[in-house]
Design a protein that fits this description.
Structural class: mainly beta
Number of strands: 17
Strand order of the largest sheet: 9-16-10-13-14-15-17
Strand content: 15-25%
Distance between the termini: 35 Å
Oligomer: single chain
């Protein structure tokens, strides 16, 4: 699938790059699989803002996605490929022989009318779900379970996929999109293929307004604030712009300060940590 570029009729259009919708076959979602989606504005159950710069945005309705793919009795026929406002990946509406419908994540190359299978002895092709034990090494996979039967949790974003590197006893070595290599039980299931659209990383919004449509509010620099609002604020001119000890509004060290716990129970499953993205 290609991306769309525009003539520079306005400054914001000059660099804007959007997704082509040529792969979408239906713009009307299945009503039985829709649920209302209430906005929180970044607030928790007490009304306190725990995630800043959230609010506004277009109204959405949630699509119920089948991340488990437990039906192994019959194949599912793809009825349509649709856009989901709640995720970057495309979704497919599938129907089973008894009339049951469900939404599943849509891998690249899936067409209307194809049959998707789930089980142990199914064909290795995009869209089919199998246990890691039945998937050949080197195969690109997505929607990977961490706990058998819980449903896929890893590699669910557009253009991403993981890779099964090796199998050892009851565990498989899986290379995640971040570059981390992790041990996952071979009983866990995954879906074959890469998620569409593959060129999602090429998207350029072009203007701040598109961020507001998605519910993202502006970010204000601490050095532009007053001392009462931020530790970096105040000063004559731009005196505080080169702060030697960058901190958060509450005084916590930031900009490279690690917040992950030193020891977690899941650390024993990490074979190789993801590479550092810090500039040298």
């Amino acid at each position: 699938m290609a991306v769309k570029r525009y003539k520079p009729t306005t400054p914001s259009r000059r660099y804007a790059v959007t997704q082509s919708t040529s792969d979408i076959t239906s713009t009307n979602p299945e009503k039985s699989l829709l649920r209302p989606l209430k906005k929180s504005g970044g607030r928790n159950s007490h009304g306190h803002i725990t995630m800043r710069r959230r609010g506004g945005g277009h109204k959405r309705r949630y699509r119920l996605i089948d991340f488990k793919r437990l039906r192994e009795d019959a194949p599912a026929v793809v009825l349509s490929v649709e856009y989901d406002p709640n995720r970057s990946a495309r979704i497919s509406l599938v129907q089973y022989p008894d009339g049951e419908k469900a939404y599943v994540l849509c891998p690249a190359g899936i067409k209307v009318g194809e049959q998707l299978h789930a089980g142990v002895d199914v064909e290795i092709k995009p869209g089919n779900t199998l246990p890691l034990r039945a998937i050949p090494t080197g195969t690109p996979i997505h929607n990977i379970e961490l706990i058998p039967g819980k449903g896929g949790e890893l590699a669910r974003a557009a253009g991403t996929s993981a890779q099964l590197l090796a199998k050892e006893d009851k565990m498989g070595h899986v290379k995640l999109p971040s570059g981390e290599v992790r041990l996952i039980p071979l009983k866990c299931r995954a879906t074959v293929g890469e998620l569409s659209p593959l060129d999602h990383l090429l998207i350029v919004s072009g203007k701040a307004g598109r961020s507001r449509w998605m519910g993202r509010r502006p970010k204000v620099r601490g050095v532009a604030m007053n001392p009462v609002d931020h530790p970096h604020g105040g000063g004559e001119g731009k005196a505080g712009s080169g702060n030697p000890h960058p901190v958060s509004p509450w005084g916590t060290p930031t900009l490279g300060y690690k917040t992950r716990k030193l020891r977690k129970a899941s650390d024993r499953f990490i074979v190789r940590k993801r590479p550092s993205r810090r500039k040298k």
